[in-house]
Amino acid sequence: MLSQAEAMGILIGALVGIILCFFLFKYMNRDKKLKTQYDEMQQKTRGKAFCYSFYTVMIIEALMIFVSLFDLNLPMTDAVVHFTIIVIGVMVLACYCIWNDAYVGLNTNMKRYGVIMLIAGAINLASAIAAIAGGRMLVGGKLQAPFINMLCAVMLIAIALVLLAKKISDAHSGEGDFE
Amino acid sequence: MKNLSMKAARAAKDLSQQELAERVGVSRQTINAIEKGDYNPTINLCRAICRELGKTLDELFWEEEP
Description:
The complex is a heterodimer of chains A (about 180) and B (about 70). Chain A is mainly alpha-helical and about 180 residues long. Chain A has helices spanning about 5-30, 40-70, 80-100, 110-135, 145-170; strands at about 140, 140-145.
């Protein structure tokens, strides 16, 4: 169980993160708009991606009911369990969108996007490593809140790898400008 | 089914997929998907493409029965 100070720290961190995201999204888009724009095919694809992501989260949450019913002990705190489920949902959404050309918006500056993702990944990874070094990652056989940083770092690395794989796949399929 | 007439019209105008995409306000991947027959565009996008390529809807998007 988190202490009140730790819980407050996480809450303030989350709020700062949300405010920071607002400015980062504006910086990431070429037209400085908060909303990323997608064309009609991308919007249709993203609709499907949200659908798959939703069902994934629903299925895992349904499984979690059984974990609770059978009183099974997972090697992580409740906060980490729920965050892991969200990360899985986001990964389904991102991977489907990347593979179907609906991840990068019409107004997205990919260089800036890459820099933001790199910095976010590095901060999360550093926090996770610091937690491991300080013995705060695993307490009483359960993964603690700092594992969330590890999950974020892994998610960002995975998204970068899928983007790279898609680029290589497109290059091999000869999908060029003058095709 | 591949949209060869659109591809030919684009090539005749010496436009790349990226250039056409920018002119009609979509991504290059969407133009590629239309040419490959993987995506059926809305009538609004069809009209925008026709305007840019100087063709009619029939010329680019109508398929004669075999």
